[in-house]
């Protein structure tokens, strides 16, 4: 009897191992990072809309960025800038950064694909004052000219000018540039 019980336990071990491997594999897949380069915050499935809260979270993410001219230091405000802040730092998510050249400048004639995110950190006296955000989503009800969503967010993420405005405060200056991006002409 003892031998039969031992044989039964031995024959169950391969099955138990398989039962343990499957949940572990599912856990690894579920916890692995998304290959979505928007930081894991995406519009609802089947929708082209994104909320101010989700876009603000994307803009405030601390990793996964490429800086304009490949440099994270701040730039002085350009005389052409419609932004009042004295300094700025501009960064691009991976989708948008694919359209930067080797010098970190927007390629001539570039047309940014959907889910491109460009964040300008606007700085006064060494402190972040707000984020100016452009997010490309051509099918969104909040998209303005060129399919861009435009917003200003406070450092805490609260909207100062939300995406519902469809870029009305931004498009006067951003009507020019490469796909409405003004970095190359304002900071050559």
**Total count of strands:** 7
Order of helices and strands: HHEEEHEEEEHH
CATH topology of the largest domain: Chalcone isomerase
Second CATH tier, the architecture of the largest domain:
3-Layer(bba) Sandwich
Describe what this molecule looks like in 3D:
With 188 residues, the chain is α+β, with helices and mostly antiparallel strands. It folds into two domains: 1-33; 52-186, Chalcone isomerase. 27% of the residues lie in helices and 20% in strands. The chain has five helices and seven strands. The protein has helices at 2-31, 52-60, 94-97, 171-174, 183-186; strands spanning 66-67, 75-76, 87-92, 117-124, 127-136, 148-153, 159-161. Strands 1, 2, 3, 4, 5, 6 and 7 form a seven-stranded antiparallel sheet that branches. The longest helix has 30 residues, at 2-31.
What key attributes describe this structure?
alpha+beta, 7-stranded antiparallel sheet, 2 domains, Chalcone isomerase, 188 residues
Topology:
Layout: H1 2-31, H2 52-60, E1 66-67, E2 75-76, E3 87-92, H3 94-97, E4 117-124, E5 127-136, E6 148-153, E7 159-161, H4 171-174, H5 183-186
Antiparallel strand pairs: 1-3, 2-3, 3-4, 4-5, 5-6, 6-7
Short structural summary:
This protein is an alpha+beta fold. The chain is built from five helices and seven strands; from the N terminus they run H-H-E-E-E-H-E-E-E-E-H-H.
